[in-house]
Amino acid sequence: MENGRAIQQFGVILQQQAILNVRYAIQLVQQPIAVHRRRRRRQRRWWTRPWLTQERRLQFGQYSTIIAELREGDTNSFKNYMRMTPEMFDELLQRLAPRLQKSDTHWRKALDPGLKLAVTLRHLAAGDSYPSLSYDFRVASSTISLFIPEVCEAIVQSYSEDVIPIPNTPEEWRPIAEEFERRWNVPHACGALDGKHIALRKPRRSGSEYYNYKGFFSIVLMALVDANYRFLWIDVGGHGHMSDAQIYNNSELSEMLEDGTIGLPPPEPLPNDDRDMPYFILGDDAFGLRTYLMKPFGRRGLEREKLITNYRLSRGRRVVENAFGILAARFRVLLTTMQQTPEIAATIVESCVCLHNLMRIRYPGLQQAQLDQEDDQHNLVPGAWRTNEMLTAIQQVRGHNRDATDAKQQREYLSKYFNSAAGSVPWQDRMIN
C-alpha cells in the first residue's frame, strides 16, 4: 500500500516536471520573437545622420565644392572628372531634370536633379561604390542606390532613339558604307559586329547561368559599330555562358538581316568593277559566313591573296574593338564587377553607350588619343586604350554556325577584287610581310 502511494506521488512529480519543461521550452522559443519585437519598436537614433543633412551637403559635398570650382576655374579637370564638358553636362541636366525632379515634403526637401546627375556620372566614370559616393557627395548610400538606376533609365529613354537609331533604309545605310570605304578601304561594309563581357556580382539563385568561360559572372554587350566608332545597334543582357553566335542568332539584328527588313541597299558593283556585290557587315570567326556578313579566312596555311583579304577585312573590323576600348576607358564602371542586378546593370551599360554616342556626335575630337591611328605609311599605331585594362572578349564557339556556300563564293570574289588593280591599295603587300 505504501509502495503504491510512493509510486503515485513520484508520477505526480514527473508530471509537474514535464509541465515545467514544456513551459521553459515555450519561453525559449518565444524569447527571440519578443527580442525581435522589441528591436522593431526601438526608436531611431537619427532621422538623418548629421553629416548627411542638406546644410552639410551644401557646405562640404563635392557637387557644391569641387565640381563648382572646376566648372569655373578648370574646365579640363571638370571634363576629366565628369567625362564631359560643362556645356554637355548642362545640356543633359536640362533634358533630364523633368524626369528626375521630385516633390518636397514636410519632412525634407527633394534632392537637386543636378546632384543626382553628378553622382551618377561619377559612378559611371570611375566605378566608385555607393558607400564611397555617399561620403563624397553627402548623400545616403541607400538613396544613391535608388536614384542611379532612375538617372540611367532617364538617359536611355531621353536619348536612345536619337543617338542609337539603327538605319532601316538604303538611303541611311549608304553614307555609312561610303565612310567605311573612304576611311578603311572596305567598300559595301555597313558596320562591324562584336561582343564583350561586363562583369557583375553573381545574381541570386542564378546557378551557372551568368558564369562565363573566363571564370566570372557577366552579362554580354553585343554591338554593331560604324566607321566613326558610333554604336549603331546594341544588345545588352545576354547571359555570360552564351557565345557570340548564340546571342547574335537570337537577336533582332540577325532576324532583320536574314529576312531583309533591315533595309540594306540592293547589290551594286564595287568601285571600278561591273559585278553586283551585296552590302554586308563585318564579323569575326565566331559568326557564320553569310552574304550579308563577311569575315576573314581561317588563319592557317593561307596564301598571299587570302592574307591580303584578311588584312583588308580586319582593318575595317578594327573599329568595333576601338569603340569598346574608348567606351571602357571613358566609363570605367564597365571594368569593375558591377554590384547591381542584371537588369539594372544592363540599363547602366545602355546609358553608357548613349552617352558615348552623344559625345561622338557633339565632340568627335574627344579621346582621339585613345583610338588606333595609322602613320603616313599606314602602319598601325596602337591607341592608348590597348595599354589599359580592356573588356573581356566572348568565347568563339562555332556550334551550328556553318558558312553558306553562296557566302563563300562571295568572299572568294571579294578576295580577287582586293588583289586586283581595281580594288587593291598600294601598301597591302607590305602589311602582310
Q: What labels would you give this structure?
A:
single chain; globular; 15 helices; 433 residues; six-stranded mixed beta sheet; alpha+beta
| Strand fraction | 5-15%
Euclidean distance between termini CA atoms: 117 Å
**Which of globular, elongated, flat, extended, rod-shaped describes the shape?**
globular
- Helix content class: 40-55%
What features would you describe in this structure?
The protein has 433 residues and is α+β, with helices and mostly antiparallel strands. It contains 15 helices and ten strands. It has helices spanning 2-41, 54-60, 66-73, 75-82, 86-100, 113-126, 130-137, 141-163, 170-184, 244-249, 252-259, 304-330, 342-362, 405-418, 428-432; strands at residues 189-199, 218-225, 231-239, 268-269, 276-277, 280-282, 293-294, 373-374, 380-381, 392-393. Helix 12 (304-330) packs across helix 14. The longest helix is centred in the first third of the chain and has 40 residues, at 2-41.
Topology of this protein?
Blueprint: H1 2-41, H2 54-60, H3 66-73, H4 75-82, H5 86-100, H6 113-126, H7 130-137, H8 141-163, H9 170-184, E1 189-199, E2 218-225, E3 231-239, H10 244-249, H11 252-259, E4 268-269, E5 276-277, E6 280-282, E7 293-294, H12 304-330, H13 342-362, E8 373-374, E9 380-381, E10 392-393, H14 405-418, H15 428-432
Parallel strand pairs: 1-6, 6-7
Antiparallel strand pairs: 1-2, 1-10, 2-3, 4-5, 8-9
Helix pairs in contact: 3-4, 5-6, 5-8, 6-8, 7-8, 8-13, 12-14
Tell me briefly what this model is.
The chain has helices at residues 2-41, 54-60, 66-73, 75-82, 86-100, 113-126, 130-137, 141-163, 170-184, 244-249, 252-259, 304-330, 342-362, 405-418, 428-432; strands at residues 189-199, 218-225, 231-239, 268-269, 276-277, 280-282, 293-294, 373-374, 380-381, 392-393. The chain is an alpha+beta fold and 433 residues long. Helix 5 packs across helix 6 (113-126), helix 5 packs across helix 8 (141-163) and helix 7 packs across helix 8 (141-163).
